[in-house]
Specification:
The protein has 156 residues and is an alpha+beta fold. It is 15% helix and 29% strand. The chain contains two helices and ten strands, in the order H-H-E-E-E-E-E-E-E-E-E-E. Strands 5-6-8-9-10-1-2-3-4-7 form a ten-stranded antiparallel β-sheet. A hairpin with a 7-residue loop joins strand 5 and strand 6.
């Protein structure tokens, strides 16, 4: 019996708190006489502005690698006018992004690296986060392989 009574009291407390007991009159006005804040209309969430410029224009700048660096990572990526320069501890590469004809939001790159080794990258596909705060280059890897590395960067 006590358990049922406590359950009923707890439920009543929740209902009273949710209803905002005593803060509005029945005519839809608050206690101070101003109109109530609830109009029945729901507020629309703020829209995120569409990205401005092409993918390569938005990607321009300096980027830092987000994972733990190794001998084959490219720790800093600089993109300017569609050209890329990427440097790591033991690897330095350059390349030019080529926009994909059918899609303004796609571009590919093939690095030319000092010493001729690109760390198993091959052809890379540039992708950006919708808010332009991060980018990824997803590499195909060597021909006949299972894929290459994914280089992930944040703005420096």
């Amino acid at each position: 019996m006590r358990k049922a009574r406590w359950t009923a009291i707890a439920m009543l407390s929740v209902v009273v708190m949710a209803a905002g007991c005593g803060n509005e009159n029945t005519d839809g006005k608050a206690a101070d006489g101003t109109a109530s804040g609830t109009t029945g209309a729901t507020e629309k969430p703020a829209r995120v502005a569409a990205p401005q410029g092409t993918l390569l224009e938005r990607a321009s700048g300096t980027w830092k690698y987000i994972a733990t660096p190794s001998d084959t990572t490219l720790d800093t990526l600089t993109i300017k006018d569609g050209k890329a320069k990427a440097e790591g501890a033991k690897l330095s590469c350059t390349g030019t992004f080529v926009p994909v004809k059918d899609d303004k939001e796609s571009a590919t790159i093939t690095y030319t690296c000092q010493g001729g080794k690109d760390g198993g990258r091959g052809l890379g596909h540039l992708k950006m986060k919708p808010d332009d705060s991060a980018l990824v280059i997803d590499f195909d890897g060597p021909a006949g392989g299972w894929g290459g590395p994914v280089d992930s960067y944040r703005r420096a």
